[in-house]
Design goal:
InterPro entries: Cell_wall_metabolism_enzyme, Dup_hybrid_motif, M23ase_b-sheet_dom. The protein has 198 residues and is of the alpha+beta class. Helices cover 11% and strands 27% of the residues. The radius of gyration is 19 Å and the shape is globular. The termini are far apart.
């Protein structure tokens, strides 16, 4: 019986909405490890780095809307301090760098991702690149701006992914080795003799 109950409890906990106090921005959201995203054949795992930090906490995950105008969360929010460098996750060309409704936004068309190409978005960001610039994976495209209503009193980067007008899960861009949150394991440099422990 416990084999059935425990997975159901785990799913209920991971999929539950944030507590009302956190949803209103009353304090920092706890770091919740998320399972790797389901494989999306239209999204190649071509990212070479997270857009902020080394392995940032996902404050809010991707919640695809049921329709174009339905509520949802069209990206993921990553915890980061204001002023943190924001990096392109893969090579491409800057599609947009400017302000939208007083919020800094940078959008990068990813190279070699078909037609229409995949496009990542980052905000709120003070851009250090310009429309048409070519960027490499890991290259800084701006710095994270403070505040804003999106993340409440704490700062976070909203990272989005689109193909045309269709929103996709940006975590799908990350290969498994970037998503792995398990402990590091060192392997022996030389093979062990049979019957001995490394």
């Amino acid at each position: 019986m416990w084999r059935v109950v425990l997975p159901c409890l785990a799913v209920a906990v991971l999929c539950a909405p944030p507590p009302p106090a956190l949803a209103r921005g009353a304090g920092p959201a706890p770091a919740v490890p998320l399972p790797p995203p389901a494989a999306d054949p239209s999204v190649p795992a071509l990212a070479r780095a997270w857009p902020v930090g080394v392995r940032p906490s996902v404050v809010r995950g991707w919640e695809p809307p049921a329709t174009v105008y339905s509520p949802g969360h069209r990206g993921v929010d990553l915890a980061a301090a204001p002023g943190s460098p924001v990096r392109a996750v893969a090579p491409g060309r800057v599609f947009f760098a400017g302000r939208v409704a007083d919020r800094g936004v940078v959008s990068v068309e990813l190279s070699g991702t078909g037609a229409p190409p995949l496009r990542t978005t980052y905000g709120p960001v003070r851009a250090s690149v310009h429309e048409g610039d070519e960027v490499l994976a890991g290259e800084t495209v701006g710095t994270l701006e403070a505040g804003g209503a999106h993340c409440g009193p704490t700062a976070c980067l909203h990272w989005g992914l689109l193909r045309g007008t269709a929103y996709l899960n940006p975590l799908s861009l990350l290969p498994p080795w970037l998503l792995d949150t398990g402990p590091s394991r060192l392997l022996p440099l030389t093979p062990s003799a049979p019957g001995t422990r490394p």
